[in-house]
Every structure is written in structure tokens, then in C-alpha cells.
Amino acid sequence: MIQYELKIVLFQKEIYFVMKIGNKKIGGDNPCFIIAELSANHNGDLEVAIETIRAAKKTGADAIKLQTYTPDTLTIDCDNEHFKIGGGTLWDGKTLYELYGEAYTPWEWHKRLFEVAAEEGLICFSSPFDFTAVDFLEKLNVPAYKIASFEIQDIPLIEYAATKGKPIIISTGIAEEADIQLAVDTCRKVGNNDIILLKCTSSYPAPLELANLNTIPDLKKRFGVEVGFSDHTYGYLAPTVATTLGAKVIEKHFILDKSIGGPDADFSLDVAEFTNMVNQVRDTEKLLGTVSYKISEKVKNNRKFARSLFVVKEVKAGEEITAYNVRSIRPGYGMHPKFYNDVLGKRFKSDIARGTPLLLGHID
């Protein structure tokens, strides 16, 4: 069952929930939840699937995600014009049934794949594509459900998954605003407020100019949910930028080796690339930090190199303080420069050597 904690965050007068998927807290000031999407990248080989999960752990991913469907739960075996893929995709010429037959993860593999993920300390969950998939995944005690972009209009499926009381992650790749609102409302209607919306572009691969990552913070504000990014672009620039815009979940297709081939290999990241992506996201999080006007001890130590008031000419007791014998210079051992105009015209109490920090005790 889902474990979650209520954390009140005052952000533009809204209250957010920090949810938990497995042992990972998502939202608030918690680190980005990084999902390696297995998808079809096992190429029909269970051992490749297992190796891919083990490799995902080494990249630094937090989770591995499967897809739970069969060709028959998604479509029918038909080759008329309605079921043939076209339009300049990677899969033009195939029927939907053929593509899904090539890409699906056999259900009899799932238990073993969940076990391997657990052995590796990876969170494992899946995208269900019909009610039977939800029922099947419930028996595996999945910690969350992911609704794929093309299923955002399948309101009965979203509602059924949401009734299981687990976080619902929804990709918005083909959705207009009304579609997103309906999906969110559907979850809330059955009492499930643990919702994460992923900005997504349902193009494979997705051109950078269609990413529109500025939508990420708007999704959070507009729908009052946690947000993330499901990426189909080449490389890993987009996930890094998404992190700067507040994405708390990053999902990216992961493949053991692109030479394996398969329907999704072209826009997936291999081990080295995915590792680099994870490292860049984590470095970006370090750079973003928190809203703070405090300075670290290390920086405090460097304040000695800031400016302060110094005696820059040898002076005698009673001599007037002027712009010629006191200046604001580095380092920072003297009085604060804000007192410069206040000390001008006053007198020195004693003789002072050139290069002495000006202190209050020096002034008559």
C-alpha cells in the first residue's frame, strides 16, 4: 500500500502533498524521482530485460517502469487503413497489432522483473492499459500507476487505477487542457489526490522546439499537483532543463545497448548516456539549492576579501579624517564602508600607520 506524509508548503497560497512511491518521497524539497522506462527495450528477451534492470540501478535511477499490455488489450489484428501506422513515425508501414506484438513485455515475466528490481533496490511499477492489467499489477503490489499519454482520454481506466489508492502519474503528451483537467478531476472524484502530471511530447523522437518546457511550472500552478517530465527527445538536455523548471519526476527510455535494436531504441539512452543524465540532474539540483540569503561558513571566511575602511597614509593624533588618508579598499578588516561619510571630518585619536584597518576606537 502507498505510504504518504502530509507536508504543508505555502507556495502562492496553495497546499501541496508530498507523496511517497516506495521508499522515495516526491515533491517539496525532495530530490527528483528518476524513472528508467524499459518499454520495448528488452527486444523480446527476458535475460536482456533482467540485465537492463540491473544496469539501471548502476546509472543512479530510482525506478524502473514496465508497460503491461498485450496486442489484444490495446487493439485488434486488422490491417485496413485505420490500423496501419503512417505519418512519418519510426514505425510507418506496420499495423498497430504488429507493433504492440513486437514491443510488449510478456506478463509472465513481470513477477521475475519485480523481484530483480527489489534485489537491486529499485522501485518497480508499470503502465496498465486496461482493467485486467490493473488487476494483474495489484497482485504484484505495485506502489504506483503510470497512465501513458495515449491513455489520458481513457477515463474509465484512470478512474479504476485511481481507486486503488496509489499515486497516479499521468503523461500529457496528446492532451489539451480540458483532457488534463478531466483526468485530474477523475482521480480526485474517487478520493485520490496523489497525482503527478508529466509534461510530454508524443512524438518519437520529439523535436526540441516542441518540448515547451515552460509548461511544467504552469501545470503545477494550474492543476495544483506535482509535476515532472516524460522525455522523448534525443540526448538529455531536456531533462536537465526540466529540472530547473521544477520537474520532480523525470522519465526517460533506457536501453542496455542500442545495438539491441527495437521500436524504442532510437530515442532511448544507453547506460553511459543515462548515467550522464542522472548526474546532470543531480548537479542541477545542487545548483538550484533552496531560497536562502544566508552564506556558508566558507563564504563567510572569504568576506575578509571584501572592502572596508583603511588608513592609507600615515597620520598623527588630532589630524582630520579625509578622503586622502582613509579609503574603502580590500581587505575587510576595518569598519564597514557604509560608515565612510560618517567618519569624514572627524579626528584621529592617535598616530596610526599606513595600512591599518580603521576601527571605531581610532576616531575621536
Structure description:
With 364 residues, the protein is of the alpha/beta class. It has 2 domains: 236 residues, Alpha-Beta Barrel (TIM Barrel); 66 residues, Alpha-Beta Complex (Type Iii Antifreeze Protein Isoform Hplc 12), CATH 3.90.1210.10. The chain has 12 helices and 13 strands. The strands form 3 sheets. It has an 8-stranded parallel beta sheet with strand order 5-4-3-10-9-8-7-6. Strand 6, helix 6 and strand 7 form a beta-alpha-beta unit. The protein is elongated, with a radius of gyration of 29 Å.
CATH superfamily of the largest domain: Aldolase class I
Tell me the total number of β-strands. Answer: 13
CATH architecture of the largest domain: Alpha-Beta Barrel
How much is the radius of gyration in Å? Answer: 29 Å
Strand order of the biggest β-sheet: 5-4-3-10-9-8-7-6
Number of domains: 2
Summed over residues and divided by their number, the pLDDT gives a mean of 92
- CATH class annotation of the largest domain: Alpha Beta
> What coarse outline follows from CA principal-axis ratios?
elongated
Please summarize the sheet with the most strands: 8 strands, parallel
Helix/strand order: EEEHEHHHEHEHEHEHEHEHHEEHE
Strand fraction: 15-25%
The poorly predicted ranges are 1-15
- Rounded to the nearest angstrom, the distance between the terminal CA atoms is 74 Å
Estimated structural class: alpha/beta
Share in helix: 25-40%
Might you state the CATH topology name of the largest domain? TIM Barrel
Number of helices: 12
